[in-house]
Amino acid sequence: MSPRVRAALGSLAFLGVAPGVVAGLVPYVLTGWERDGGVSTVLVVLGWLLVAGGLAALLPSFARFALQGLGTPAPVAPTEHLVVTGLYRHVRNPMYLAVGALIAGQALILGRPVLLLYAALFGAVVFAFVRGYEEPALTRQFGEEYAAYRRAVPGWWPRLRPWRP
User: What whole-number distance in Å separates Cα of residue 101 and Cα of residue 48?
Assistant: First the structure.
């Protein structure tokens, strides 16, 4: 099996396990995906925009890890190459932001504040993970290449103009 195929299969499996559970199963368990009848149409439309945007960011970002990085987003099978293309030219953490958008979008669609609290908890956990594990691991693995990327591209608030290494 080629490295790209192995990375693609690993990324696909991790997509189901991590974002699938965090942005799919947990919101379902918390809400049964039952909608509060009093949700305004504006909030529902905003929610669907967040869900669509989250998916539009998440899926290509996963693909980049497999096809360009020759690895997966999973810490147990990291990429061989630092991925700095696509949305990664604007923000270092597009996958985490996408999953947060999926959760917040569901909160708006369903009118369920518990999902907004869950999104905030998800954000706090992810931020701690990125600072405590991911950034040090990437620094060890990619050294100055990652340091230059980190200096140029913000972690959480996307830059408007894409970074060009």
Answer: 10
